Amino acid sequence: MTQATARAHTNIALIKYWGKQDEQLKLPQNNSLSLTLDHFYTDTTVIFDSSIATDDFQLDGQKLAPQNAIKIQQLIDHVRQLSGQTAHAQVISTNHVPTSAGLASSASGFAALAAAASKAAGLDLTQRDLSRLARRGSGSASRSIFGGFAEWQKGDSDETSYAVPIQETVDWEIAMLTVVVTAKEKKISSSVGMKRSVLTSPYYSAWVANATQDLTQIKQAIASQNFEQVGQISERNAMRMHALTLSSDPSFTYFNADSLKVMQAVNQLRDAGIPCYYTMDAGPNVKIICRPTDAPKITAVLSADFAPDQLILAQPGPGISYLD
Ligand SMILES: O=C(O)C[C@@](O)(CF)CCOP(=O)(O)OP(=O)(O)O
Predict the structure, then answer these.
(1) Among the listed residues 84, 87, 105, the one whose alpha carbon sits nearest the alpha carbon of residue 96
(2) Ligand 1, pocket-test mutation among 10, 17, 35, 253, most atoms within 8 A of CB
(3) pLDDT range class, residue 101, cuts 50, 70, 90
(4) Peptide bond into 165 cis (omega under 30)
(5) Is the pLDDT higher at 258 or at 183?
(6) d(CA 98, CA 134)
(7) If you take atom 7 of ligand 1, which residue's CA is the nearest one?
(8) Rounded to whole angstroms, how far apart are CA atoms 155 and 81?
(9) Domain named Mvd1 C-terminal: which ranges (predicted)?
(10) Which of 281, 285, 286, 287 should be mutated for ligand 1, with most atoms under 8 A from CB?
(11) Which among 191, 204, 291, 293 is least surrounded, fewest beta carbons within 10 Å?
(12) Separation of 105 CA from ligand 1 center, angstroms?
């Protein structure tokens, strides 16, 4: 019996991944860039044990039904193929996200799984190969191997599509205040949503061209620690991603009334001289990019409409680590 435990933190994309060039290998259409956060993480233990009769997957204390574990099964099978390990696996994952958060991220989950499974199987993967393996679970998981700012280079094959660190130790003032407007599961998953956008939005090719420019600009802004530039580019890029959902056929959006309320509040705060910007992913929760020192003022304004446990401040977080 061999086992390993890994911890991976979730990441929020500032330049979004929204569309694949290859569904099966999860190769994206454009490079993306994210910030790994300290507050939300997943701990995963993988045990390869020849005495167990089948693979067994548990998430937050609940046994996962096979139909909900297809991607986990595929990743474990791939690790067995890579390592020659033949024993069945027990996977025990715990998402450390605020209970009501609805932020249980596939990014931290599949990054932790890739790290724990490969180590338990006796593989000693480079960070690049770990990122490639995590990408097979969920594209955004490829970025959670690294702390701070990371860029997922799209590549054009399994071997060339992986994340690289841009600035693993972020020693300048940037934070993310997540406004949890709901913890309900989203109806349209990011996988399904992005596929519809690629196939039906008339703006998709413009998205790829613009996101590529955004990425070049944001890397310069990060290098010069230009907070306002990072915020402006992130907000612009996120809204262009959500324009793809609205312009898909049939149209769909992840915004709800509370999302728009938060976005309005951010605009008012900015007009009042507080530099803050919003980004959103495949759900209605809003992430506000702000300076840590401004978070109390922003929280005070939002507390008129949201309870304290819906307002979660996170700072830049670390990359993958092993707990045993
Ligand atoms: O994180 C980002 O770049 C932007 C998003 O979060 C949505 F806004 C996409 C995440 O997609 P993911 O769940 O990784 O899709 P998969 O590869 O189909 O599993």
Answers:
(1) 105
(2) 17
(3) low
(4) no
(5) 258
(6) 23
(7) 281
(8) 23
(9) 177-309
(10) 281
(11) 293
(12) 10
Q: How far is the CA of 96 from the centre of ligand 1 (A)?
A: 19
| Rounded distance from Cα 107 to ligand 1 centre (Å) | 8
Q: How much is the ipTM here?
A: 0.99
pLDDT of 99 over the 60 cut: no
Question: What homologous superfamily is domain 175-314 in, according to CATH?
Answer: GHMP kinase, C-terminal domain (3.30.70.890)
77 alpha carbon to ligand 1 midpoint, in Å?
A: 22
| Whole-number pLDDT of residue 98 | 65
Q: Where in the chain is the domain with CATH 3.30.230.10?
A: 2-170
pTM of the complete model beyond 0.90: yes
Measure the CA–CA gap between 276 and 42, rounded to whole angstroms. Answer: 28
Ligand 1 centroid to residue 91 C-alpha, Å: 23
Are the C-beta atoms of 163 and 33 separated by less than 8 Å? Answer: no
Please say if the pLDDT value at position 258 is more than 60: yes
Distance between CA atoms of residues 5 and 3, nearest Å: 7
As for ligand 1, residues whose beta carbon falls within 6 Å of it are 13, 16-18, 26, 32, 106, 138-140, 190-191, 281-282
What is the C-alpha separation between 185 and 200, in angstroms, rounded? 24
CATH 3.30.70.890 in the chain, residues?
175-314
Topology of domain 2-170, per CATH?
Ribosomal Protein S5; domain 2 (3.30.230)
Q: How confident is the model at residue 184 (pLDDT cuts 50, 70, 90)?
A: confident
